[in-house]
């Protein structure tokens, strides 16, 4: 662990310039959301900087072996989520607290029972300024500072739609997260949440 500058430098060495631009965008949105919603801004910054730290590692399966992530854990997730598992293990080994580690772990899929910091990193990852051209993104951005539950519901719907439209495997945690947030906010639900 170190200062934000030291952490940015360490992450920069592991990411392409394009990915680093995304990471810095996530950092900026995450810190603003933490200030708005009363989360710890240091944790938000650290989780944002670390969320994709292993995404460009050449072999996620090797990395999971190196980090002692059991096959029974990664076999339950889709390949697009592997970097969240390895990123969380990376953050844990560096000594970051469990709030930061879990925010990295759940940044791709979300899950039922998300913490405020997990929501913030999930949303910042979707809403950072480099992301464009995804239907529903402007509505999500419009809700970030008004209602984080509504923003999360829109984000989960948007992500699931994106995955389904491309015929990619869907992670069950995303659907569980969507049902969970819809049940907590019945006025926001539209029925999509219960689609299998
Ligand atoms: Fe990611
Ligand atoms: Fe990301």
State the shape.
Answer: globular
**Assigned CATH architecture:** Orthogonal Bundle
- Hetero ligands: fe (ii) ion
Give the tally of structural domains: 1
Looking at this structure, what is the CATH superfamily? Hypothetical protein af1432
Structural class: mainly alpha
* CATH fold-level name: Hypothetical protein af1432
How many strand elements?
0
Q: What is the N-to-C succession of helices and strands? A: HHHHHHHHHHH
Number of helices: 11
Our estimate of the beta-strand percent is under 5%
Name the quaternary structure. Answer: single chain
Helix proportion: 55-70%
Q: Whole-number radius of gyration?
A: 16 Å
Overview of this protein structure:
This protein has 11 helices and no strands. By secondary structure, it is an all-alpha fold. The longest helix has 21 residues, at 17-37. Bound molecules: fe (ii) ion (2 copies). One fe (ii) ion binds next to loops. One fe (ii) ion is lined by residues 22, 26, 51-52, 125.
Task: Supply database-style keywords.
mainly alpha, 62% helix, 196 residues, binds fe (ii) ion, single chain, Hypothetical protein af1432
Produce the secondary structure layout.
Blueprint (H helix, E strand, L loop, with lengths): L3 H9 L4 H21 L3 H10 L9 H7 L4 H4 L7 H12 L4 H8 L10 H12 L9 H7 L4 H18 L6 H13 L12
The structure holds fe (ii) ion (2 copies).
């Amino acid at each position: 662990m170190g200062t934000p500058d030291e952490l940015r430098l360490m992450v920069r060495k592991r990411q392409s310039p394009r990915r680093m631009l995304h990471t810095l965008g996530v950092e900026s949105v995450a810190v603003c959301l933490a200030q708005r919603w009363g989360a710890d801004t240091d944790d938000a910054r650290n989780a944002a900087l670390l969320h994709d730290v292993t995404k460009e590692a050449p072999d996620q399966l090797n990395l999971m072996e190196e980090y002692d992530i059991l096959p029974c854990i990664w076999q339950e997730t889709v390949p697009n989520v592997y970097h969240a598992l390895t990123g969380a293990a990376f953050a844990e080994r560096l000594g970051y607290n469990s709030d930061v580690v879990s925010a990295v772990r759940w940044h791709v899929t979300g899950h039922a029972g998300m913490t405020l910091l997990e929501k913030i990193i999930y949303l910042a990852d979707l809403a950072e300024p480099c992301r464009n051209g995804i239907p529903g993104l402007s509505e999500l951005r419009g809700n970030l500072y008004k209602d984080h539950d509504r923003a999360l519901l829109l984000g989960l719907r948007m992500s699931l739609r994106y995955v389904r439209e491309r015929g990619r495997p869907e992670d069950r945690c995303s659907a569980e997260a969507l049902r969970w947030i819809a049940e907590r906010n019945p006025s926001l639900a539209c029925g999509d949440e219960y689609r299998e």
